[in-house]
Design goal:
homotetramer; mainly alpha; Arc Repressor Mutant, subunit A; Tetracycline Repressor, domain 2; elongated; DNA-binding
Chain lengths: ~210, ~210, ~210, ~210
Amino acid sequence: MSKRLQPEEANARDRILDAALEVIAQRGYSAAGVQEIVELSGTSKGSFYFHYPSKEEMVMALVERMSDKLIAKIEGSAGQQPTPLHRLAASVDALMATFARQRNVARVLLLNIIGHGRATDRKFLPIRERFSGLIQRQLDAAVEAKQIRPLDTLLVSQMWVGALHEVIVRWLLTGQPSPLTSATPALRAILLKSVGADPPALETPGVSADQL
Amino acid sequence: MSKRLQPEEANARDRILDAALEVIAQRGYSAAGVQEIVELSGTSKGSFYFHYPSKEEMVMALVERMSDKLIAKIEGSAGQQPTPLHRLAASVDALMATFARQRNVARVLLLNIIGHGRATDRKFLPIRERFSGLIQRQLDAAVEAKQIRPLDTLLVSQMWVGALHEVIVRWLLTGQPSPLTSATPALRAILLKSVGADPPALETPGVSADQL
Amino acid sequence: MSKRLQPEEANARDRILDAALEVIAQRGYSAAGVQEIVELSGTSKGSFYFHYPSKEEMVMALVERMSDKLIAKIEGSAGQQPTPLHRLAASVDALMATFARQRNVARVLLLNIIGHGRATDRKFLPIRERFSGLIQRQLDAAVEAKQIRPLDTLLVSQMWVGALHEVIVRWLLTGQPSPLTSATPALRAILLKSVGADPPALETPGVSADQL
Amino acid sequence: MSKRLQPEEANARDRILDAALEVIAQRGYSAAGVQEIVELSGTSKGSFYFHYPSKEEMVMALVERMSDKLIAKIEGSAGQQPTPLHRLAASVDALMATFARQRNVARVLLLNIIGHGRATDRKFLPIRERFSGLIQRQLDAAVEAKQIRPLDTLLVSQMWVGALHEVIVRWLLTGQPSPLTSATPALRAILLKSVGADPPALETPGVSADQL
DNA sequence: AATGAATGAGCTTTCATTCAT
DNA sequence: AATGAATGAAAGCTCATTCAT
């Protein structure tokens, strides 16, 4: 009854995105050739351009698919938490855990889809904003719940995203820390401290910090 | 005695780097053609390949030139400060101020030289590390001077660099905040708070926070 | 009893030809894609290749359909005339009038189906010859009826077709003369003069030149 | 001292045009691939696009080169004639003679550069107009010199060009008449007759009709 | 030191045609 | 009869790099 099919059984649209993820992660956006993508996907150039109007549009679709899944995972994880601050901590943890499990997704989302000209960069800006927007809303809620003092949540959300981004990129490039998630507790503590939230304040009966 | 020459008087090596900075900032690394660079520089393809063995090596030289200048500016600014914590604050301020004044440098250094394949990315890793290394040494000094409590300075330095990176990238893409430096005081305060340093602790006679 | 159907009611074979006429008139033979033709026709690629073995054969069918209708119109118009010379004049008039009314037909027949390689050009030669053959037979009849002196009717028929062709092509490309048919009397007079037939010689009781 | 070089010695720009003439004559405009042209020319794709910005621009250059030479030949031949009517006759003769000698030029100029979409067709319109304009000016001069009665010289010049065009195209496709120039005297006579000029009126001492 | 014409592998994209349904 | 996803050869074009001058 499983919906998880063997690659050969999945439809061409998805097989192409799967292959593109792999190839772009290895070679980067520009150097990822349509030829290599269709070879890996077991389809053909004709099929590629039947399903996507251009390489660029196909990458947009790939990035959106990845973002959707990642956002869903984060929101799913945060949704089970009792307070805004717990939700922030859970979001950080979920993001780290997800990227740690999916190096290629991290590679493409954090490393390979920027720096390809002003126009392309601006196209991906909304995706950046989805993540920082999610953090910002949680920060706003924490302020409203008086868990933290009022502050520039737009700026802070960008800083958090940037801090997470950099730590993960270093891991991608150097393999350190190993595993990536070993850095999560310290990272989470520093981020919370930056908004004046003492990590102990998070403790609630039945939810230890490690579980976040 | 001025070192600032008219473009036509500067030597070919530098004119090529100047032109490359401009072109890469506009088009991105991959789309920046050697043809356009040599046209803007007033030299020729032959000259380009006489001075640099490849486009990639030339970009390395450009990035190194930019990094050297930026590091020098930061260290120069930090060197005048009395304590490690003052030096950290001054470093952040100098970095923000310098990128705010040189959009193209920010664009290339932060946006356009990553994501072009595993090999290329690893080549630029040392440059990333120069910046976080600088911050880390200042953090270590602050710990040693007991201005802040012991913490994982490697991780924190990466987080700081990432936070700065993201704020500046957003500014490059959206123009907000305007001017970029208007965000500096809040940014500096949040970063210091993340390591448990109260901004008031920085105040010293003759050096107001605004001057940092 | 009407034979004129709504496009959706006509059969697929004809709907494809109708669409092809439109698309080839706009884009030219080579640039007219099968995809666009089937989209406009409301059919499908499969249907296209069920009814026609190839794009080329389908264009042949289109050209033949158009030629048949045009020849029929010309012969119908000429058939009502009393003498060979009248029939020649009527043929010229009918041809001009028909193309004036059907720009797309003129475009495809005169402009878009030649110049696509030796083989293709030769395929369309018989269609060219249908028109000049029709003129030639009328010229031969005029010679036999002693309305004009003996001459190289093969050559003259080609020249007439070429002259008409060029005038119509110019009109297609420039819109001049406007309307096309405003040139018909002068054109007819010059053609007749070229074979030594004074236009006044055409006058017969009950048939004024204007009616031709 | 000859300027005529072996193909290998000529410069790349011209070698490309020479090869393009050959390939387009065989295959037609659309089917003539840049690959085949550069192979025949002994150059490379890079060289092709170094010298011409696109295939279309290169064909424009080819057509202009051919037109220039043809117009020069016609005007040179006509310039030696005593009267406008003689110049008209000489122009017709020169055009027929030139195309008879250069089948490929005829093929490309008369057969292969039209019918490739509205935009392209309009681009070549000025070239059509160079030839009919030349004829029209000679007809105007003949009217002014009272060698022929006033008439619509614009229309007549188009008709002449069309008549010549068609005769030559038929020869290209069928090989008839053989040689092409065997049709010249009759053709010339019919054209002159179409404007009311008796061929005998052309006779001048020392210039027989055959020499025209 | 410098020039710029030349190279050719590689790029993204198109398109007539096929075929399982 | 009809569908439309799939194919893959070929298209026009780009570009880092080379080299005779």
